[in-house]
From TrEMBL:
Pfam families: Mrr_cat (PF04471). The chain crosses the membrane at residues 54-74, 80-98. One of its GO terms (molecular function) is DNA binding. This is Restriction endonuclease. GO terms for biological process: DNA restriction-modification system. The keyword Metal-binding does not apply. Residues 180-273 form the Restriction endonuclease type IV Mrr domain. It comes from Microcella alkaliphila. Keywords: Endonuclease, Hydrolase, Membrane, Nuclease, Transmembrane, Transmembrane helix.
Length: 297
């Protein structure tokens, strides 16, 4: 790698400083992607200015040569010396002009590259910092929710044992790297419900259940383990069963929900969840599900 000249090092430092300044201004304005090219446009102007200013102003040498020629006529006794000086200045002007014409465009390109690299680096560092802060906040929130769920779970377990109700496994399900069958998904959901505090949740043992796959004293749940999105019709059907059964409806799927299904569930009081058997995770989709996930069933 070619070592930079002192002039290039000076321009590189200035371009990097300008890049960081542009990036800070964009971050403060919330403009992370620079889709309109505002930063790039400003860096073009900055790079041109830095490259142009890194070399002698050839206009100064030209002016000096003109002044020397004029002095040759005004001071006859020194005419030969002034004329020689003017010629020398003229030669210097020509050399600098040619050199400048070749060097400035190349330095301009380098300055632009250095400046934009600084912008990207500054963006990346700030984004990493924000991601770290959000991860810490998320982990703290998850720890808080786990503590709430554990306390709620212990309370429900004591109440169930005092009432003589059989209590199943209260741990959350372990990840299943190879996935599960539809029946395995039902057992998975029952375990999730128990881990959320509904200690009596279990897979239904009969078929004429109105589509109910998991049930407990207070909740009924339907489980859809397939690749399609859950539509409003399926959520409406579960809500109808829950309204006559007088228990709260929970819907679990391995994929997601159509917008209409989420909107209807919010109106009908159906909690929507998405589970991942492979990762062993459960994600609340609507507000009611988020409340259950935070404070337990």
């Amino acid at each position: 790698m070619t070592e930079l000249t002192s002039r290039e090092r000076s321009v590189k430092l200035a371009a990097e400083n300008e890049g960081r300044r542009f990036a800070d201004a964009a971050i403060a304005a919330g403009d992370w992607d620079d889709e309109d090219g505002a930063i790039a446009g400003r860096m073009v102007e900055t790079a041109r200015r830095l490259a142009d200013g890194a070399y002698f102003r050839t206009g100064t040498w030209l002016a000096a040569a003109i002044v020397a020629f004029m002095a040759a006529f005004l001071v006859p006794d020194l005419g030969w010396l002034v004329a020689l000086t003017a010629v020398a200045l003229g030669v210097v002007w020509i050399v600098l002009t040619v050199r400048r014409a070749k060097a400035v465009p190349a330095l301009y390109e380098k300055a632009y590259y250095w400046g934009m690299a600084s912008v990207r680096e500054h963006f990346a560092a700030r984004l990493e910092q924000l991601q770290t802060e959000r991860r810490v906040e998320r982990e703290a929130e998850q720890a808080r929710l786990r503590a709430l769920r554990e306390a709620h779970l212990a309370e429900r377990r004591r109440a169930a044992e005092a009432a003589g109700v059989a209590v199943g496994d209260l741990r959350g399900p372990e990840p299943q790297p190879f996935g599960v069958s539809p029946q395995g998904a039902e057992r998975l959901v029952a375990q999730w419900m128990r881990s959320l505090g509904d200690v009596t949740a279990d897979v239904t043992q009969y078929t004429s259940d109105g589509g109910i796959d998991v049930a407990s004293q207070d909740y009924i749940a339907q489980v859809k383990h397939y690749t399609g999105m859950v539509g409003v019709g399926e959520v409406r059907e579960l809500a109808g069963v829950a309204s006559t059964d007088h228990r709260t409806a929970l819907f679990f799927t391995s994929t997601g929900y159509a917008a209409g299904a989420i909107e209807f569930a919010d109106r009908a009081g159906v909690a929507l969840f998405v589970y991942s058997a492979e990762e062993g995770t459960l994600r609340p989709v609507n507000e009611l599900a988020a409340q259950f996930y935070a404070s337990g069933l």
